[in-house]
Every structure is written in structure tokens, then in C-alpha cells.
Specification:
This protein is mainly α and 276 residues long. It contains 6 helices and 4 strands. The chain has helices at 9-34, 45-100, 106-129, 171-174, 183-236, 240-273, and strands at 131-132, 135-136, 149-153, 161-165. The strands form 2 sheets. Strands 1-2 form a two-stranded antiparallel sheet. A two-stranded antiparallel ribbon has the order 3-4.
Length: 276
């Protein structure tokens, strides 16, 4: 007659459950200490991937808002300069009308011409010198293509752009030469000035419309950014109340497992002692 002692299955089972409970305790403690459900990829691999994509989108939208604000600043600089050119042109028109009056002498018209020349030079200086971050704005050479078109990356994805075209505001392009010392020159000057003021109005209208569009875009993507950040938070951030309860449960199960394991080992030891 033979007799054998089989492997202590009870002890092995207790050890398995104890290890699982200890792993649960460690995972729960990791979540509580980091405040994140995604401290490691092992916690939730798919959730981590989704959360990282949302995080990248939130960051991209934040940069898009900054880009739009910078473009608004550029537009405001350009519009302020155009206001100065517009005021100069208003004054030039008034002086041209004054010079057109029959009570003006040749000497009077020569003095008026000097003031007009000064205003034209001032306007040309504004057009040639106005810049933003070292980029000329009003001479028709700004923008990445060098044609006065400025592109704003106004969204988080490729193709989310907005363009603003700023026309050439140099005197040669707007109005050309003005001579009020002759009757023919005064007549031609009024037509040129009116055409120039119309062009100035068109440039400023483009600037105003682009600024309003950018401001609207900022409002829209700000709301989108908040919503996406909230969605990311739902995936990434730990629920402390629920996780604290889970930690307590796992901790109790770990203690029970350790106790069960010790009892199983003690039983095996007692059986073995019978043969000593």
C-alpha cells in the first residue's frame, strides 16, 4: 500500500488571489498618488491613446488662439497706420479744393503745394515703415508669398487657415503725383485723391472684416478647447471618491488573501508534521 502528499492546492490558490489583490492595491495606490487613471499604459492602453490625442488637440487649439490674437495685433497696427494715411489724404483734398479757388495767387498755391508735398511724404513714410515683427505691412510685400497676403493658422489642423490681404498703400500706388499749381493739375488731383480714398476704404474694410472673423474664430475655438479638455479630463483624471473605495476594498482583499495563505500553509505544515 502506497501513500503520497499532493501539492498544496489550497495554498497555491490563496497565494494567487493574494498576489492579485496586492496588484490591485498597488494600482489603486498609483492612481490615487498621481491623480490620474493613466499613470501607465497598462492601466488603460486605449484610454491613454485617446487622451493623448485629445491633449494634442487642446494644445493645438491653444496655439491657434495665440496665432489669431497675434494676427489681430498685426491688423490693428496696419489699420492704425492706414488711419494716419487717410487723415493725410483728407487734408490733401481740402488743400486741393482751397488751391482751386480763384482767390488764390500763384504764391498761395505754391505754399499749399509745399504742405501737400509734406503730407504725401509723410503718408509714404507710413506705408514704407509700418511693420509688425519686422515684416512690412503696407508696401504690398508682406506675407509668406511676398504679395501682401498674410495667412493665420487659425485652427488645430492642417488647412484651418484664414487670409488677410493688405494692399499697397504707398503714395505711388494710391494717388501718384499731385500738382495744385496748375488748373489741369488741380482737376486731375481731385480725381486721384477720391480714387485713393476709395482704395484706403477698401483696405481698411478688409482689415476690419478679417479682425472680426479672427475674433469670432477665437470665441468658437475657445469653447471647443474647453469641451475637449473636459472630455480628456473624464478619461485621464481619477475619481478620488470611487478610487478610495476601490483601494479600501482591494486592501481588505489583500489582507484576507494573506490570512488565507498563511492558514493554508499552516495546514500543510501540520499534515507534514504527522510523518515526522
Amino acid at each position: 500500500m502506497s501513500f503520497s502528499i499532493n501539492t498544496n492546492i489550497s495554498a497555491m490558490t490563496a497565494n494567487l488571489h493574494s498576489n492579485l489583490a496586492n496588484q490591485g492595491v498597488n494600482n489603486s495606490l498609483g492612481r490615487l498618488s498621481s491623480g490620474s487613471n493613466l499613470g501607465t499604459a497598462a492601466y488603460d492602453a486605449s484610454g491613454l491613446g485617446i487622451a493623448n490625442q485629445l491633449s494634442a488637440q487642446v494644445s493645438g487649439l491653444g496655439q491657434a488662439i495665440q496665432n489669431s490674437n497675434e494676427s489681430i495685433g498685426m491688423i490693428q497696427v496696419a489699420d492704425g497706420a492706414m488711419q494716419g494715411i487717410n487723415e493725410n489724404m483728407d487734408r490733401i483734398r481740402v488743400l486741393t479744393l482751397q488751391a482751386s479757388n480763384g482767390t488764390m495767387s500763384a504764391d498761395d498755391r505754391a505754399i499749399i503745394q509745399q504742405e501737400i508735398d509734406g503730407l504725401l511724404e509723410s503718408s509714404d513714410d507710413i506705408a514704407k515703415q509700418t511693420s509688425y515683427n519686422g515684416i512690412k505691412l503696407l508696401d504690398g510685400t508682406g506675407g509668406s508669398a511676398g504679395n501682401g497676403t498674410f495667412t493665420t493658422q487659425s485652427g488645430a489642423d492642417s488647412g484651418d487657415t484664414q487670409n488677410v490681404s493688405i494692399g499697397d498703400a504707398q503714395v505711388a500706388s494710391l494717388v501718384g503725383a499731385i500738382d495744385v499749381t496748375t488748373e489741369a493739375g488741380r482737376t486731375a488731383a481731385l480725381d486721384s485723391i477720391d480714387s485713393a480714398m476709395s482704395s484706403i476704404g477698401d483696405i481698411r474694410a478688409e482689415l476690419g472684416a478679417s479682425q472680426n472673423q479672427l475674433m469670432s474664430n477665437i470665441r468658437n475655438i475657445s469653447v471647443t478647447q474647453v469641451n475637449i479638455a473636459s472630455a480628456e479630463s473624464q478619461i485621464r483624471d481619477v475619481d478620488f471618491a470611487a478610487e478610495s473605495a476601490n483601494f479600501s476594498q482591494q486592501n481588505i482583499m489583500s489582507q484576507i488573501g494573506s490570512f488565507a495563505q498563511s492558514q493554508a500553509n499552516a495546514s500543510a505544515a501540520r499534515v507534514t508534521s504527522l510523518f515526522q
